[in-house]
From TrEMBL:
Coiled coil: none annotated. Residues 25-230 form the Metallo-beta-lactamase domain. PANTHER family: METALLO BETA-LACTAMASE SUPERFAMILY LIPOPROTEIN, METALLO-BETA-LACTAMASE DOMAIN-CONTAINING. CDD domains: ST1585-like_MBL-fold. This is Glyoxylase, beta-lactamase superfamily II. Signal peptide: none annotated. InterPro entries: Metallo-B-lactamas (IPR001279), NDM-1-like (IPR050855), RibonucZ/Hydroxyglut_hydro (IPR036866), ST1585_MBL-fold (IPR037482). It holds the Pfam family Lactamase_B. It comes from the Bacteria.
Length: 317
């Protein structure tokens, strides 16, 4: 195992580094220290040992966990939920209504992830275990979950990245746990004096109009901070929205040009890499910085999602 890393955000919230894809700074698991100890996200199953050790470092036993909330059921957010439930006997898993059946039977999730990650699937995600339906709690848009100490969590239907996605507003922190709807926050850029976000447009339910509408809804709610699945907390929501919406426009425009010239997802990926590598290098990020490894993976998967959306909607015709 790699070193246990915990970041305390205040407001009864801390984050455990999940080392998703074997990388630091990729996926965070949030813990809300309320009367009902509550996790937001699990990461994939290889993150579960880090969760359990992180909880132990903060003085918690697995039996203390009462709620595990997953913003959506993609394996980098919820893939470890089944394994974690084996260690946390009193935990229920809270999920969007359209995701519940896939937690009970993850076979289609596994099949979809294997299509994206191929031979790497086993090392990145195994095991993906089913969850007893009796331990699954569905939350609809506008529903709440009172976990104590003022944390009356409000669930917000937030499609765009995925149709089965909700986000969670916490009144104590005045923050939204955004999953992937408000994009990816590359917090590694903070040490270079700027903030950098991009949309996450992975297959196969990416919908740019729904993503824009969800972000508009976040703006209406008016949080003071955003807690990203990837990765960390940003206390300037307006800047996050601006960057993600600008990035979304760039993604779509780049895809349009690539597809009209007969290129596929790989062409979109390379065009986006060229643009964002140049931008980040100009901002002073060293060429060998690990940020580029994470960014390249994200752009590869996002380009696949754009192509899937494009083909489904005949946008290229």
């Amino acid at each position: 195992m790699q070193p246990i890393q915990i970041i305390d955000w205040g407001f009864d919230i801390f984050m455990i580094e999940g080392y998703d894809l074997g990388m630091a700074g990729r996926t965070g698991i949030y813990v809300i220290e309320a009367e009902e100890l509550t996790l937001v996200e699990t990461g994939p199953s290889p993150s579960v040992p880090y969760i359990l050790e992180g909880l132990k470092e903060r003085g918690y036993a697995p039996e203390d966990v009462k709620n595990v909330i997953v913003t959506h059921i993609h394996l980098d957010h919820a893939g470890g939920a089944g394994l974690l439930c084996q260690s946390c006997p009193d935990a229920r898993v809270v999920v969007h209504p359209r995701g519940a059946r896939h937690l009970a039977d993850p076979s289609r999730l596994i099949e979809g992830a294997k299509m994206v990650y191929g031979d790497q699937f086993a090392s990145l995600f195994d095991p993906v275990l089913p969850i007893d339906p009796a331990r699954i709690l569905i939350r609809e848009d506008g529903d709440t979950l009172d976990i104590g100490k003022g944390h009356l969590l409000q669930f917000i239907n937030s499609p765009g990245h995925a149709a089965h996605h909700f986000s969670i507003f916490d009144p104590v922190s005045k923050g939204i746990f955004t999953g992937d709807t408000a994009g990816i926050y590359y917090q590694q850029t903070e040490e270079y004096g700027f903030q950098f976000c991009l949309p996450s447009t992975s297959p196969n339910q990416f919908d740019p109009d729904a993503m824009r509408n969800s972000i508009a809804r976040f703006e209406t709610i008016g949080p003071e901070r955003l807690f990203f699945g990837h990765f960390g907390m940003m206390d300037n929501p307006a800047e996050a929205y601006r960057q993600v919406l600008d990035g979304l426009d760039r993604f779509i425009d780049t895809a349009s040009k690539a597809f009209k010239e007969g290129e596929g997802a790989k062409g979109v990926e390379e065009r986006l890499k060229n643009h964002y590598h140049s931008y980040l290098l100009a901002q002073g990020i060293p060429q060998k910085h690990g940020l580029f490894t994470i960014l390249n993976l994200d752009l590869e998967v996002s380009a696949m999602g754009i192509e899937h959306y494009w083909n489904k909607n005949d946008e290229s015709k």
